[in-house]
Automatic annotation (TrEMBL), chain A:
Pfam families: Vma22_CCDC115. One of its GO terms (biological process) is vacuolar proton-transporting V-type ATPase complex assembly. GO terms for molecular function: unfolded protein binding. This is Vacuolar ATPase assembly protein VMA22. Residues 1-26 are annotated as: Disordered. Transmembrane segments: none annotated.
Automatic annotation (TrEMBL), chain B:
InterPro entries: ATPase_csu/dsu_sf (IPR036079), ATPase_V0-cplx_csu/dsu (IPR002843), ATPase_V0-cplx_dsu (IPR016727), V-type_ATPase_csu/dsu (IPR035067), V-type_ATPase_csu/dsu_dom_3 (IPR044911). PANTHER family: VACUOLAR ATP SYNTHASE SUBUNIT AC39. This is V-type proton ATPase subunit. V-ATPase is a heteromultimeric enzyme made up of two complexes: the ATP-hydrolytic V1 complex and the proton translocation V0 complex.
């Protein structure tokens, strides 16, 4: 293939351009396949995390009793969602999804409805910390302030919010219920990663498809 | 005085002791659990249970089954057996049998109050209540805004009234208050039951003291572990421990200041009856603690049947039946979630 290119245009750059083009096409196909592989890995990871979460919930029910963990205790009072999803669409073809955990009512992007919150001070602190959004625990370390004291404050706040979410089942809950909560939180993070990966996958597929169409044309 | 129960017990209690020993022989064996653990679907579980004493309660249930249906029907059997014993019992056995249900009554009260706080429909909450803990005015709980109203409007006419003296406030009910109310009520109930058994004397007092002391100690451990990392202060935590049991008072002092599982282990390992329980756990682990406690409880409950002419057999039977229902719930959940490899994590064999 390379010899053919040199015979056609031995001295100018068009042979090199064609080679470069082919390399780019190969790169796009590899990117597509990588995205597909990552997507399937995330799918497996999500499946196993959810299985673990459901089993931990059943274990917590076994420990605390069926009267303490059942859907009749879900809180139907109006309250803001502890977690919301932001869709950033800089590129129309590849939207980016970000999870906003324990967000402030001041953050209009994440909450457009009015709500009364007793912990305004807590959430004002959160909103000044460069919008506390993260995908998984690794980003907590990236986004949180450098000083150890501030890091501990963020972790404490997160713990408080987690306990608040669980309070519908009571204040003194089994550690197994807390483990189930962590598992479902991890599953949510994985879902967002899957959404981003799928977005990347579809974008890579479009590019490959376009290249194939232009090659045939 | 000990030993003379044989002369008079059978006059009033002989029939019911025979009945409860008959019920005991109907509890599921290890062979039954092995069959259940090999089931692929909930319908298979239903088929196996139809061949046991649960048969009449499950055979007409339509498919597809749900785990809650299996638990409800099995609980119905327990309720029928209890009611049969209660209607045949004379004093003081009838009061003893009623004491066994006060724990469920407390759970039902807390369920209704919590559900109402969360704006749930009262009818839906009543369906979730344990049938052994029902009383006439339970639906009226939904109108109370604070504990004082709860007591004045509803609970003053129930057996739980004496247990409310320590937790009556005019503060509005919220999640923390309700949790403290639950544990304070249960503490008062256990202490009252303990005193009642002491008054009965004889083998009943001896065996029930051991069983209730174990219950109080287990509750103290669970409260300590569950309150780690919460806003419950050390003093408030200590107030929730019962004033009897092997851990009272020095174990309670140490448990009140524990900040993690290893510290709890350190406290409990000083007490020889609890050393084997914590020896089964690895450091930092609390996952298998419940199963270890249930196994110890089942061992003690089975020993109650080794003696005659006492009321502890009734308490032991009710608790063993509840353990059996917990086992069935766990097996059903594992089968429904296709997690059969984990089925032995929480099943406690009785025989």
């Amino acid at each position: 293939m390379e010899e053919e290119n040199r015979e056609l245009n031995p001295e100018n750059g068009s042979g090199f351009t064609k080679q470069h083009q082919e390399e780019e096409e190969d790169h796009k196909v590899v990117k597509f396949l990588d995205s597909a592989d990552s997507y399937l890995d995330l799918f497996d990871s999500l499946s196993s995390t959810l299985r673990q979460g459901w089993l931990e919930l059943a274990t917590a029910r076994q420990s605390m009793g069926a009267s303490r963990i059942n859907r009749a205790l879900f809180d139907l009072k109006y309250h803001n969602a502890a977690t919301s999803l932001q869709v950033i669409q800089d590129d129309v073809k590849q939207p980016n999804f970000t999870l906003c955990k324990w967000v402030s009512t001041n953050n209009q992007n994440c909450s457009t409805e009015e709500a009364k919150f007793d912990e305004d001070e807590l959430f004002e602190k959160n909103s000044t910390n460069a919008q506390l959004r993260y995908r998984g625990t690794s980003e907590i370390q990236e986004k949180s302030p450098e000083s150890i004291g501030s890091k501990l404050t963020v972790v404490d706040q997160i713990q408080k919010e987690r306990s608040k979410s669980l309070s519908m089942f009571g204040t003194l809950v089994s550690p197994k219920l807390r483990c189930a909560q962590i598992s479902f939180e991890t599953a949510l993070d994985t879902l967002i990663e899957m959404a981003n990966m799928r977005s990347s996958l579809l974008s890579a597929y479009d590019q490959v498809h376009k290249d194939m169409a232009s090659t045939k044309g | 005085m000990y030993g003379f129960e044989a002369l008079t017990f059978n006059i009033h209690g002989g029939y019911l002791e025979a009945i409860v020993r008959g019920y005991r022989s109907g509890l599921l064996t290890a062979a039954d659990y092995n069959n259940l653990c090999q089931c692929e679907t909930l319908d298979d579980i239903k088929m196996h249970l139809t061949a046991t004493e649960y048969g009449p309660y499950l055979q007409n249930e339509p498919s597809p089954l749900h785990t809650t249906t299996i638990v409800e029907k099995c609980t119905l059997k327990l309720v029928d057996e209890y009611k049969h014993m209660l209607c045949q019992a004379t004093e003081p056995l009838s009061t003893f049998l009623e004491y066994i249900t006060y724990g469920h009554m407390i759970d039902n009260v807390v369920l209704i109050v919590t559900g109402t706080l969360h704006e749930r429909d009262v009818q839906e909450l009543l369906e979730k209540c344990h049938p052994l803990g029902m009383f006439d005015s339970i639906a009226t709980l939904a109108v109370a805004q604070n504990m004082r109203e709860l007591y004045r409007l509803v609970l003053v006419d129930t057996p739980l009234a004496p247990y409310f003296s320590e937790c009556i406030t005019s503060e509005d009910l919220d999640d923390m208050n309700i949790e403290i109310m639950r544990n304070t009520l249960y503490k008062a109930y256990l202490e009252d039951f303990y005193q009642f058994c002491q008054k009965l004397g004889g083998a009943t007092a001896e065996i029930m003291s051991d069983l209730l002391a174990f219950e109080a100690d287990r509750r103290a451990v669970n409260i300590s572990i569950n309150s780690i990392g919460t806003e419950l202060t050390r003093d408030d935590r200590k107030k929730l421990y019962s004033n009897f049991g092997l851990l009272y008072p020095y174990g309670h002092e140490e448990l009140a200041v524990c900040e993690d599982m290893d510290q709890v282990r350190g406290v409990m390992e000083k007490y020889p009856p609890y050393q084997p329980i914590f020896a089964k756990l690895s450091y930092g682990e609390s996952q298998m603690l419940d199963k270890a406690f249930y196994e110890e409880e089942v061992k003690r409950l089975c020993l109650a049947f080794e003696q005659q002419f006492h009321y502890a057999v009734f308490f032991a039977y009710m608790r063993l039946k509840e353990q059996e229902i917990r086992n069935l719930m766990w097996v059903s959940e594992c089968v429904a979630q296709n997690q059969k490899s984990r089925v032995h994590d929480s099943v406690v064999f009785i025989f």
